[in-house]
Design goal:
alpha+beta; ATP Synthase, domain 1; 2 domains; 10 strands; binds adenosine-5'-triphosphate
Amino acid sequence: MPSLQLDVVTAERVVYSDAVDSVVAPGTLGELGILPGHAALVTTLQPGELRVRKGTDEIDLAISGGFLEVRHDRVLILADTAERAEEIDIERAQAAQERALRLIQERRERADLIQAEAALRRSRVRLKVARRRREGMAPS
Ligand code: ATP
């Protein structure tokens, strides 16, 4: 069966590397679905979820932006930061969210506000990805 080679890397580490069936990525211009045979493409990513399907498994990652390249059934993601769902520390993301909200409420200078808003987006994506996994694992 045709497949895609997916590599998700950051400046620090290889976060994910495997042959997969499909990838849905948070493109800056909207969600981007990639299947084998996809045309060559280079695009930027925004903070969001990266959903990977491999057989019956769905692997979710939180990414905070970066670049994506598709070429010859290889998907390369150079992410600013990326975590697999099971790696996400929920308490840390919650603390980051609260800190960002506090900074936004304090109405500081514009540069601080932009940073706080970016931190808020990162924390929200992490919480969403981590909580979905936790809910998926809960006994029915
Ligand atoms: P914090 O304020 O908690 O550091 P942040 O959004 O400022 O959050 P980043 O600068 O985006 O953090 O990431 C720094 C490093 O920490 C990256 O390697 C990232 O993957 C990791 N990281 C950040 N938050 C979490 C988390 N909640 N769980 C696991 N790893 C995290």
